[in-house]
């Protein structure tokens, strides 16, 4: 069984496009050459990898398994190339980290700052994703380490608790419910909201729970930071759901914070990785450093 990196990249491209033609185009290969390579892979394995359909292709069970392995191999090769080329720039390693919205903006900066100060030859790229996507990316080798909602992580990932991440409702000081200590999301879901941009993992999370109640959220303004959201709420534009840590850190004390009683609003975040034995040393160092900042 001899597969080269061209085979791997081609197969991943076809799997993602669900089309041999489009996969060949993405891989800069002629259609005939791409078809021959796929047939050669199937012959070497002794099992079909793709089911040809009228409109594209579908992965077989063997194809799904190969896709997982191919992504891991390509990620490891990219990591190797990146680390080796980084030596020429005086940089030893680059870590790809995924985090949910509040983790990236509220809970990671201080810990990452001290890690980077301690390890000047290591660089960290933090990308915002939903927790379910983080788990998938780690399992497939598309990322090195993640910060995600613990309850949404599957078995098979190494993890340790990092911090609590309660979501709260914030309202203007003169709002009709400003004096409440708590409320259910159902009671406020139909109100006008201020939120993050639609690409935000947190905003998608909240919208999903609104849809489960049969409500389409009315968002009057979308902004890129929790501080900007707090300013809008303080001005009476609408109400908002943000991490409690962000509400506490807002410069003004005029907004009112109300606890949300729904279970999904009380979350625990965990640092997660693939098996520790398979991690590059810089990723292990980052995980060990973050463990020192764990608040649970």
Can you offer a commentary on this structure?
There is one protein chain. The chain is an alpha/beta fold and 296 residues long. The chain has eleven helices and twelve strands. β1 and β2 form a beta hairpin. The protein starts with a helix and ends with a helix.
Q: Tell me the number of helical segments per DSSP (H or I, 4 or more residues long).
A: 11
* Biggest sheet record: 8 strands, mixed
Apparent shape: globular
Strand percentage, roughly?
15-25%
Mean pLDDT: 90
Integer-rounded radius of gyration: 23 Å
Could you estimate the helical fraction of the residues in percent? 40-55%
The strand count comes to 12
* Separation of the first and last Cα atoms: 47 Å
Regions with pLDDT < 50 over 5+ consecutive residues? none
Structural class: alpha/beta
Task: Please write the string of helix (H) and strand (E) elements.
Answer: HHHEEHEHHEHEEEEHEHEHEEH
How do you describe this structure in short?
The chain has 296 residues and is α/β, with parallel strands linked by helices.
Notable traits:
11 helices; single chain; 24% strand; alpha/beta; 296 residues
